[in-house]
Amino acid sequence: MPTTYLSPGVYVEEVPSGTAPLAGVGTSTAGFIGLIPAAVPATTTTPTATAPAGGTATATVSSDLAASGEVKLCTNFAEFKKFFGDFSGTDAAQNTFVHAVYGFFRNGGTRCYAVKVSAESELAAALESFEGIDEIAIVAAPGLTSKTGLTAVKDHCEKLGDRFAILDSPDAVDLSSASLVSTLKPFDSDYAALYLPWIQVFDPASKSEIYVPPSGHIAGIYARVDTQRGVYKAPANETVMGAVGLKYNISKANQDGLNPAGINCIRSLNGNIRVWGARTLGGDANGEFKYINVRRLFNYIRESIDEGTGWAVFEPNSPDLWAKIRRNLTAFLMTVWRTGALFGSSPEQAFFVKCDEETNPPEVREQGQVVAVIGVAVVKPAEFVIFRISQWAGPGGS
Q1: Is there a single domain that holds both residue 224 and residue 318?
Q2: CATH number of the structural domain spanning residue 124
Q3: Residue 363 belongs to what domain range?
Q4: What is the pLDDT of residues 3-19, one digit of tens each?
Q5: Whole-model pTM?
Q6: Which residues contact 117 (CB under 8 A, 6 or more apart)?
Q7: What is the CA radius of gyration of the chain?
């Protein structure tokens, strides 16, 4: 019903646009699964109560500890310890889980969801509990190396299409083995990356240096790079904070055989422990998605569009709707291009959006569908930097 105006004057009204700006989704929230046998309880850092005069001191146990299969959001390491306990000098599985999440926060992570299970058979249930948490963009099960377990994590990420798996290599490997690649690579997947070798860190529980799987630290590096540069930047050539050594020192010759297969190496270079690989598991076999940052950028774009265009559902399927969709998608991709994620000196070179009568003919509209076609030119990482050097006689030389 139109508004009735009773006296002369200027009237300014707020009119809803019917659409909302399309914002990018988060890319660095991790989901951690700790495999901790139920027979060994998680330790806590709760101090022992002071004994009254002539009495006996009793230890207080935190009632906040998460039960097996219970997912908890953790925004810092202290919060994680409250739910899952501290470093342990007696329980290797507990220690692995704690070191992974500690490494995540130390390397730049800010938010993660964590859950513990008592056996690998419970992994499927834990992954199912992650399905309803749309915020999760990275999944890791620190120390999990069985093909069955790794496949479950990979399948989870492929099924949802909005998250990426970080996998650990086995603790012990034979770098001289002729079958090293086939031993390390359980499958090909552009939704997963595998890292070799385990890293050496200081363990507060034993007051010594131990080896731990790198997936938690790597997840933190993903988060750090996403924040400092963007999801389009390959999470490589980055220092692993907290790492003081490596289980194996990998040479260039070793990596020459591993990199094409998408097995990412962590190497000691110039006194620093660095991530020196940026490929999805399978490498060259994964075609246009052989790089981690390309897959994760597509995940980001797809999920952002999915969450940012819900307003269009049940709208009249007309040229007016098509125009609104084009405007929203173009504005979003313009922002992505300006961050440096897309290749091209102009928006026209970097992306296109098509949503019109050609993509939405009568037979499509009759099925209740509206179709938009999007193309993006993704920036690939400079994996091989080549300088061609020759001698030069100088000005006037023959």
Answers
A1: no
A2: 3.40.50.11780
A3: 312-398
A4: 778 888 787 777 666 56
A5: 0.89
A6: 33, 34, 35, 36, 68, 69, 123, 125, 126
A7: 26
